[in-house]
Amino acid sequence: MRQFNRVPCIVFVWLAISLALLPSIARPLTRDDQQRLDELARRILSHKDQVAGYPVNQETDLDGFYAWYTRLGLQRSVMNNVGDPRKTSPYSLNTHAFENEVIDDFAELYGFQPGKYWGFVTASGTDGNSHGIYFGRKALASKAQQAPILYVSEEAHYSIKKLADVQNLELRLIKALEMGQMDIRDFERQLDPERPALVVVAMGTTFKGAIDDQAAIRRVLATRHRGPHYIHLDAALFGGFLPYASGDGWQLVHQQIQRFDSIAVSGHKFFGFDEPMGIFITTQDTFRRLNPFHVPYLNDAVPTISCSRSAISPLKFWWKLHATPLSALRQQANEMLDGAETLLARLRETGIRAWKNPYSNTVFFERPDAGVMRDYDLAPEEDPAFGKVAHFVVMPHVDAVLAPFVADMKRWKARTSSPASTTLSPRATPRTAR
Ligand SMILES: Cc1ncc(COP(=O)(O)O)c(C=O)c1O
Questions:
Q1: What is the pLDDT of residues 207-237, one digit of tens each?
Q2: Which of 134, 262, 288, 359 could form a disulfide with 282 if both were Cys (CB 3.0 to 4.6 A apart)?
Q3: For the domain 1-50+328-434, what is the CATH code?
Q4: For a pocket test of ligand 1, which of 126, 161, 212 has the largest count of ligand atoms closer than 8 A to its C-beta?
């Protein structure tokens, strides 16, 4: 009996000593707190593979990264990539060396001239666009006295319009064609031949997956514009998969072919990271025109808009590039594009009006009822040409969802086309059935 009582006592003493030795001010969570966190995790994990309305890849595949990270206890340090990753920072707890290798890999992928680029791992696609517009403004200011005008298609991502506002730039919204590409004739009409031009090209519009015609934009600039211009490519989603896909799509994101000045790509879209991040790369010529403010405190080296930057996201990027065979990235890119073709064909076979742009993994179609919208986290849109629509973004994780989705759409269509259909329809197939 005495022996038996000693066990909890030993455990208690061991716990007390461990807690006293731990350099932690955290206390165990209450049962309620723990329960809330567990419910959140269960809800997200049970629904994640069904999310198809937003361009994120749920096949994150980061178990190996987190196993390494926690095995060595790196979560007990505060790393920070503040500063220019190409310069030595007085704050040595950074991952700049790995960040540079990630940028070197992508600079090669996007066809920048070797050694003639600069870039960093961003906080998101929007962060990359923000730097594209900022760097563009600075580069143009170094060449001309007048303030530039920012040109972007009305179907480009809303972040560009917001960033023009934040950076106090005159914005000219260019009309889009029905399928979402910038209307080149309207660009020509609206282009001021004298003022510097900052053009943001949509390399895959958010809703219809349309790609602006870069050759036509360059032609208009060459023939109708006299001052300096700067071209930034918003390739948030398409910049991830196009270089890996079969065919000639890689040429659309190749700097020496398209002559763009900078490019922004999201990391959490095609590459499947579990938090927002991205890539921004520009030419050395643009970079040297920045004229950054002097910051002796950080070795005179803060070209980025934000000061503190994640040191973990570059590590994740590096880890993924090293742990994923090139053949796997190619396979994912091709399967996404093939899946989008299949989805388009299946929807049309069932009598649903559906559309897709070339090189695109996004299929848009007449908007189903609220049940289907909710089940697949579909994004709604109101379009002047197509009416009420929704889209499905074919990412690597949606493979198993394609067939049930088409079946749900078919059921919805049958309900709405039958004379006895009611205006309010019940939820689509119960989620547990999938
Ligand atoms: C074309 C385009 N640009 C920019 C963004 C914004 O990227 P992020 O969400 O990484 O900030 C998106 C997001 O969907 C997008 O589709």
A1: 999 999 999 999 999 999 999 999 999 999 9
A2: 262
A3: 3.90.1150
A4: 126
